[in-house]
Structure formats: structure tokens, C-alpha cells
Specification:
253 residues; alpha/beta
Length: 253
């Protein structure tokens, strides 16, 4: 019975990940901690009521040290010494900057949110993860952050987002290398272009598909995933026309 914590879980992919985990058999998943700056979001409240006792809301503003300390203390209290098995760093922003990269004056803010705050959350929950049986950290990344694939995504104006996800990938590798001796498994995964508030209505895939494929890695993966940047597998999308394909396996760095 694994315990999970998902950041940015009040909507979109984070909410769907929480919903699918909470619907899993109790023999697989015992507790799902859902963090958000606003735990009063209607969608999150509905999930908490539906899976009473299995979904625990955690108010968290990772830019506020006191909020982060309080969140760790709350999770620790609920775990009662069992430890946290899986951390899914899902929270992030994807602003659009019209024009070329010279117009991107949001780089500092986006790097802070998508990279620095992910680091601060991971660092804060490491003591609880050390007590867990699985010690898995999954960072939700994007193939938009792939340097190799940059030419095919050149028309996307999400300049700061692309840079931040490339940085997140490097941070993932650093955690993977430096905590392998403690039997951690740390990997990044791109969930695909999903129809969420962030992805928009014209995205490739429903959010349910992205969440399901991400959780296949999270639930079933072991040490062989450490330090890797993964793509999801969606049948029929292995060689799809256009910029996005979902063949599974490793995404190009």
C-alpha cells in the first residue's frame, strides 16, 4: 500500500493523477496527498468527498518557507511513521510570449516556479521519502524541453517554459545520480499535450490518457527508470504526423 504526494493537484493533470490513484485498489494505494495553494477548489473538494479518508488535502505555497514546513508536518502526522513512497512534482506554469524569445521577460519567474520551487519541495520531503519503501520522485516534464526536438517545436511561443523544462530535466538527473546510493528512483516524464486549462481544447489527448500512461511508469517502474526522461505510449500515436508522437520509452534530451 503505497503513499503518494502530488503537487498542483487542484486541477488538470494533477487532479486526474490523484483521482486515478484514489480509485486504485487499497492494496496498491493507501493515501494520496494533494497539494495546492487553494485547497478549497470545487474539483478538489469533490475528489476528497468521493474518496473519503484516502485523499488528504495539503495547503502548500512552496515559495513560503513556513507553508512548506507546515505541509511537511501535516503529511508526516498523517503517515504516522510509515514514510512517503512517491512524490510527483506536477505543479508548474506555461505562459505564452508572443513574438521571438527577445520578448520573453518572464524567464526569471518561470524558472523560479518550474525549477526552483520543484527543488525546494523535493528537498523538503526527502526525509519522509527516505522513510518510504519505494523512494520514487517523478518530475512532470515536457518534450518541449527537449534540445534535440527544438526544431519541430520552434513555432511554439512558450519560450520560458521550454527553457525551464530543459533545466528541470538536468535537475532530475542530478537528483538521480546523487541519491542512487540511497536507493531512490528519480525520473522525468512528459505526459503529452493534454486537454486541460494549460493545454487548451485543441490538444492531442484527453487528460485521462496522459495520467494513465504516467502512472504506468510511476506504479510499475523500478531502478531501471532512474535518471531517465520518458515519453508516454499511446497506441496510434507512435508515428503521428505533426510535432508530437507518443511511442513510449525514452524521450530525446
Amino acid at each position: 500500500m503505497a503513499t503518494y504526494l502530488i503537487t498542483g493537484a487542484s486541477r488538470g493533470l494533477g487532479l486526474e493523477l490523484a483521482a486515478q490513484l484514489a480509485a486504485s485498489p487499497s492494496s496498491e494505494v493507501s493515501l494520496v496527498f494533494t497539494t495546492s495553494r487553494d485547497i478549497s477548489a470545487r474539483s478538489l473538494i469533490g475528489l476528497i468527498k468521493k474518496f473519503s479518508g484516502r485523499v488528504v488535502p495539503v495547503q502548500l505555497d512552496p515559495s513560503d518557507p513556513e507553508s512548506l514546513r507546515a505541509a511537511v508536518a501535516l503529511v508526516d502526522d498523517h503517515l504516522q511513521g510509515r514514510g512517503l513512497d512517491v512524490l510527483i512534482n506536477n505543479s508548474g506554469v506555461q505562459p505564452i510570449t508572443p513574438g521571438k524569445i527577445e520578448m520573453a521577460d518572464d524567464l526569471t519567474e518561470v524558472l523560479h516556479t518550474n525549477v526552483t520551487l520543484t527543488h525546494l519541495v523535493t528537498r523538503a520531503f526527502l526525509p519522509l521519502l527516505r522513510q518510504g519503501s519505494r523512494k520514487v520522485i517523478t518530475n512532470i516534464s515536457s518534450t518541449l524541453g527537449s534540445i534535440s526536438l527544438s526544431p519541430q517545436f520552434s513555432r511554439s511561443p512558450a519560450h520560458a517554459y521550454k527553457i525551464s523544462k530543459a533545466a528541470m530535466n538536468m535537475m532530475t538527473v542530478q537528483y538521480a545520480l546523487q541519491y542512487a546510493d540511497e536507493e531512490f528512483t528519480v525520473f522525468a516524464v512528459s505526459p503529452g499535450w493534454l486537454r486541460t486549462d494549460m493545454g487548451g481544447q485543441y490538444a492531442d489527448l484527453p487528460v485521462e490518457t496522459g495520467a494513465e500512461q504516467v502512472l504506468k511508469y510511476v506504479k510499475n517502474g523500478g531502478k531501471e527508470l532512474n535518471g531517465r526522461f520518458l515519453n508516454i505510449h499511446v497506441p496510434g500515436w507512435e508515428n503521428a504526423p505533426g510535432p508530437n508522437q507518443y511511442p513510449g520509452g525514452d524521450a530525446p534530451w
